[in-house]
Specification:
Blueprint (H helix, E strand, L loop, with lengths): L1 H8 L5 E2 L9 H6 L8 E2 L5 E2 L2 H11 L11 H26 L9 H18 L13 H16 L1 H6 L3 H11 L2 H6 L13 E2 L3
Antiparallel strand pairs: 1-4, 2-3
Helix pairs in contact: 1-3, 1-6, 4-5, 4-6, 5-8
């Protein structure tokens, strides 16, 4: 999701191929034996296989609102620290919480509590401003938003009843973001011969 949002934001014309990971097309495996999504094939033949790399590449081509360009060195360092924690420790707790049936040896409440450590940090940052790096949306907000959304929606009633009032407000704002709504549009799973679809159309 964060890769698609960055591509759309940067006005990158992107041919979209929605895939079913239970039935991966041979064309995808030829391009990326890693066989995970997202995969971005650039016009020069280069391949990006990580969503964060796709974000950074997109913002390097066009960043009209300064998601990345407007961050000073201190903000950029903090952003990278937040994203690193999100993509490693928090992602592990998220997977264990969201797919609890796959981890019967773990206690669900304890798993959620570990994930909450990251939520608490974000809520603290958001006490000072509407977004993580100030009053304007930036790179770090979009990078961590999809993961916080997933965590919240495992049990939305629980999340809404927590004291993370700043994080809740932040999440609501991003859920209402037009760019997010556009990338959430359901597309038909791609197969050879199907009419090509471009991201955001």
């Amino acid at each position: 999701m964060r890769a698609r949002m960055a591509l759309l934001y940067s006005n990158t014309k992107t041919l979209l191929r929605e895939v079913d990971l239970r039935d991966k097309p041979s064309q995808m495996l030829q391009v990326s034996p890693k066989a995970t999504v997202p995969v971005l094939v650039l016009t020069d033949g280069s391949i990006l296989e990580e969503s964060l790399d796709i974000m950074k590449w997109s913002l390097s081509t066009f960043d009209p609102d300064g998601w990345l360009l407007n961050l000073n060195e201190e903000q950029l360092n903090l952003s990278n620290k937040i994203i690193d924690e999100n993509d490693t420790e928090f992602k592990q707790h998220l997977d264990q919480y969201k797919y609890a049936d796959r981890f019967p040896e773990l206690n669900l409440e304890e798993t959620r509590r570990k994930g909450e450590e990251f939520l608490t940090k974000l809520d603290g940052y958001l006490q000072e401003s509407a977004y993580l790096m100030g009053d304007k949306l930036s790179y770090v907000d979009v990078a961590v938003f999809p993961f916080i959304r997933q965590f919240a929606y495992v049990d939305k009633n629980w999340f809404d009843a927590t004291d993370y009032i700043y994080l809740q407000k932040w999440l609501d704002a991003l859920l209402d973001f037009e760019l997010f709504k556009r990338v959430m549009k359901k597309e038909v799973v791609w197969k050879k011969g199907i009419t090509e679809v471009f991201l955001g159309n």
